[in-house]
Amino acid sequence: MQESELKIGYIIGENTSGRFQFVISDDSNIKKWEYVYLKIKNEIVIGRIEEIKSKSELMNDGMDYQSIDKYAKTGMNDFVNICISTILGKLKDGYLAQSREIIKPGMPVYPASDEILQKVFSFNTEESLNIGSLPDNNVNVSLNVNGLRRHLAILAQTGAGKSHTASVIMEELLKKGASIIVLDPHADYVFMKKGVDGKFYSEGISVFRTPLSTGRYTNNDVGIINNFTIRFSDLTPDDVKGIMDIKEGYTNLISIVDDIYKKMKGKKDLNDFLETAESLPAEDYKKIKGRLTFLKKIKDIFQDYTTGINDYLGPGKMSVMDLSGMDQFLANYFSYRVLSSIYDVKLSSEFKYPVFVFIEEAHNFVPPRSNSNIAKMIKKIAGEGRKFGIFLVVITQRPGKIDADVLSQCNSQIILRVTNPSDQNAILESSENITGYLMEDLPSLDTGEAIIVGEIVKMPAVVKIRNRETMAGGSDIDVIALLREAREEVRKKNDPSEIRKKTKDLLGEF
Ligand SMILES: Nc1ncnc2c1ncn2[C@@H]1O[C@H](COP(=O)(O)OP(=O)(O)OP(=O)(O)O)[C@@H](O)[C@H]1O
Known about the structure:
Blueprint: H1 3-6, E1 9-11, E2 19-24, E3 35-40, E4 43-55, H2 65-74, E5 80-92, E6 95-97, E7 108-111, H3 114-120, E8 128-133, E9 140-144, E10 152-155, H4 162-175, E11 179-184, E12 205-209, H5 219-222, E13 226-227, H6 237-243, H7 251-263, H8 270-278, H9 282-297, H10 309-312, E14 318-322, H11 328-347, E15 355-359, H12 362-365, H13 373-388, E16 390-396, H14 404-408, E17 412-415, H15 421-430, H16 436-441, E18 449-454, E19 461-465, H17 479-494, H18 496-507
Parallel strand pairs: 10-16, 10-17, 11-14, 11-15, 12-13, 12-14, 15-16
Antiparallel strand pairs: 1-2, 1-7, 2-5, 3-4, 3-7, 4-5, 5-6, 8-9, 8-19, 17-18, 18-19
Helix pairs in contact: 8-9, 11-13
Domain Helicase HerA barrel: 8-92
InterPro entries: HerA-like (IPR008571), HerA_barrel_dom (IPR018538), HerA_central (IPR002789), P-loop_NTPase (IPR027417)
Pfam families: DUF87, HAS-barrel
């Protein structure tokens, strides 16, 4: 095909090494977010359309309705359609390298073919995770598993598709034999053992719950579950303080717990702890009584066995820690136990495979300036984890309410719809990958559409995340269907024939 047949426009006006503008014909089908290229000295320089402007000298913004109406009816037009495109780089061996060429007015602009785009959005099979496709064509987009080495953030407002996206990445990582831990405060991932068809999906997935869990699903709903239990005598005094939510500054309560430990003479189990506490001087007992009541309330988590790292960490194994129904500080404590044990085995190289840790609702575990054990552990992993092979996937709907250092340690971002300006600002500040142009698109993304930037992709892209293979938990409630059911219930309650039927059932024929 001749170049002249392919081109869609010509470079015009002022252009820079980062951006160019070109005029397109009136009947062009080109759309925002599509990719174009220029041929400069036998090289292909790729750009992405960020904006399309249309303007007319004739029908300008100083004219009234009647005059425009007249022009419009004549069919006359002098529209100029101008596309603004960012330069993503020049294509080199399937990768993008920086382009420093001068972009001159008059140069033709070509639409990037699916073939070119497919090259840019794929990696070799072993390193690629299939995440979805470009929204307007069939080009598959893959993530580079190596890009996860520098942590990933999945950011979006509620309902935009964070858990869906995270599940797709988990499915892909499982296929690669990854070891995955999921901190799951709302039981969003507890059904992943099942496929969308309801059949069994993967041997490798286990769900861990504490006997305390009063979450949104029962054990029967979830199917096979593993209990996360603790043998009280395995706990250190500091562990017990953590479980009782006794923070660093509570010096009185800290010394009372230490005192109980010094005086314990029996099996060092929960009963021993509680009985020893009762023998404390009345004043001390009074101070700690509320915390002891709490320990009694959660006594079911203390069993004969302490769930340990070998239960939940292994090659090709994904363990979902269902923390639903727990107070935040207990969820923090359990999560801290899990992450610190992973940190230890990775630090000592006892476990050699990479571990991917997904943290849902991460803003609750590591809010700004938090000094809790779990927050310190997450910050440590964000800072140094990648050296030992622990990679974070931080998921949050409140990017403005999570520790900024943790967010900025994430070198890749998958960002779905975000309309709140303070969250948009937090995202913009967290990463140099995100430009103002990309930010402008955030409010208009559809559910399941994401902007992906950073080391996991060769160039920034808006991607339609693929369908899930596994069953979702925590999907949106179908309000319409439930309201329909409620109306039907009320109708039946008031329907005379239903009332007669009920009376007959109760009294028999009369
Ligand atoms: N790529 C997608 N394709 C099809 N459906 C999707 C996609 N992404 C999300 N959805 C659907 O949109 C709804 C919300 O998705 P999801 O639960 O993942 O959002 P969320 O951002 O995690 O919400 P929340 O903050 O409430 O947990 C779900 O019903 C989900 O199935």
